[in-house]
Specification:
globular; 34% strand; 13 strands; alpha+beta
């Protein structure tokens, strides 16, 4: 079935993209505005893009006719924290997705505690097993009002119990207990399996699996 994106509505393009590009990690973004207001919101149009420099990318949709607090705060202060979402906090994450009016502190609404960040002003969610402190690298504002926000990672916090070897930066991903987005549903990321990459030498030798 061919879907011509030049002829589809925005809503139908969103459905094709979000129902097929799965699973997607969730960026639970904490920001602080220039006036000191805190905000927390989840975004599943998110991923790591490069490691040199270390860049994360987040797609921020519009909030009606207004720019979301997340994008507004990031442009005001150039700082934000991306927390990852463990299964045990899925309900709290869902509360922070409510489209509250500007100025509402979703961290308080969801009953989340925070810890100070090391290099940026916005705090990190204490209950999250992973948090990336970021500074704004680039914000591409689309004509639609949506934003593609690129953040340079300045520091990462990882739960001690998931760190296998701090010196070598080995992480036990399964111990993080993270969830991902799949169409309108969520899934646990604990169904991992190993698949070693095939080297060119093995391929030439006829070893394909």
């Amino acid at each position: 079935m061919l879907f011509d994106f030049t002829k589809l509505s925005t809503n139908n393009r969103y459905k094709i993209l979000s129902y097929t590009i799965v699973p997607r990690p969730i960026a639970w973004v904490v920001t602080v505005g220039a006036n000191g207001d805190r905000n927390a919101a989840p975004f599943s149009f998110f991923n790591v893009l490069t490691s040199k420099p270390p860049i994360l990318g987040i797609g921020v949709t519009t909030h009606g006719q207004n720019v979301k607090d997340t994008a507004r705060h990031i442009n005001e202060t150039k700082q934000f924290v991306v927390n990852l979402v463990p299964a045990k906090l899925i309900n709290e994450m869902n509360l922070t997705a409510v489209e509250f009016e500007p100025g509402v502190d979703e961290l308080d609404v969801a009953g989340l505690s925070v810890l100070p960040s090391s290099m940026v002003k916005p705090p990190r969610i204490a209950e999250s097993p992973v948090a990336f402190e970021c500074e704004l690298y680039h914000d591409h504002a689309m004509e639609s009002g949506q934003h593609i926000i690129l953040g340079r990672v300045l520091a990462a916090h990882v739960a001690d119990e998931a760190v296998i070897n701090a010196e070598k930066c080995y992480i036990d991903t399964l111990k993080l207990g993270l969830v991902g987005r799949m169409d309108n549903r969520y899934l646990n990321t604990d169904q991992a399996f190993a698949l070693p990459r095939i080297s060119l030498e093995d391929w030439k030798a006829g070893r394909r699996s």
